[in-house]
Amino acid sequence: MRLQLIFLLLFFSSTIAFSQKKGNKGLIDAKYECTYSVKYINDTIKMTHGTDDWFVLQIGDDLSYGYSYLKYQTDSLFDSGGVGTWVENVQKNIKNGTMSTLYSSDLMYAKVFKEYKEKKLEVIDHISINYFIYGEDLTPQAWTLLDDTMTIAGYACQKAVCGYKGRSYEAWFTPEIPINEGPWKFYGLPGLIIKLYDTKRQYEFELVGFKNTDKKIDIRPLTTKRITGFFKFSLTQIDRIKFLQAKFGEKGELITSADMAKVGLSNDEPVKQYYDYIELDYK
Prior knowledge:
It is a single chain. By secondary structure, the chain is an alpha+beta fold. 21% of the residues lie in helices and 38% in strands. It has five helices and 19 strands. The longest helix is centred in the first third of the chain and has 27 residues, at 69-95. The two termini are 32 Å apart.
């Protein structure tokens, strides 16, 4: 029964993709694509690692879009052959170890848009099959640049540090790529972030690919507040803290029905959490 529930949740969360119909309305050009490896601790009691992922960052003139490659992969599995083929592929990938059913990173389902002109950051995320969108001001982290230098992936890098949403971070950026971007919500250094990690080493990002691209970024969910695909879902506007409290509950405690009720959901079987999420300022 538990495995069936896991498959059901995977099914609903994986079949929601941004549709790209013919024509360019609502699509903007990306100029660069960065791929970061993502490593994280999924159990801070046993100190075990979760399934490795990749964070893809597409950068255009007016905004960037970041997402999990594993999420993109599960969407592609579904799109390639419908429900039956998707379930077969998921089962095969779980058996051969290329996909995990448990403890996926809290980064996996979040879609992160940084809108430069509006100086706004918008995130699309979900709890079960309920999708939400929340906004933040797009401002650089309070970076402190240090004199330390290092060559990483062939790039001459400089070190910077900051505190952000309850964690302390160290970053290495390169002025050789004069783009003030980085993985997830990180932004604002005088060069592309090549490597970034929190000082507890529970979350780590490292650039493994950078290239020019002619791909399109679909911004229609930001304007229509809807996701279209095999299913169509409305995006509920929500406060970031309220969303995180409902999704994560208290660190190391049960996510209770009261937590879920904060966003109008119910949870008959509370879930025990064993790790610190990347954002710790929601309590």
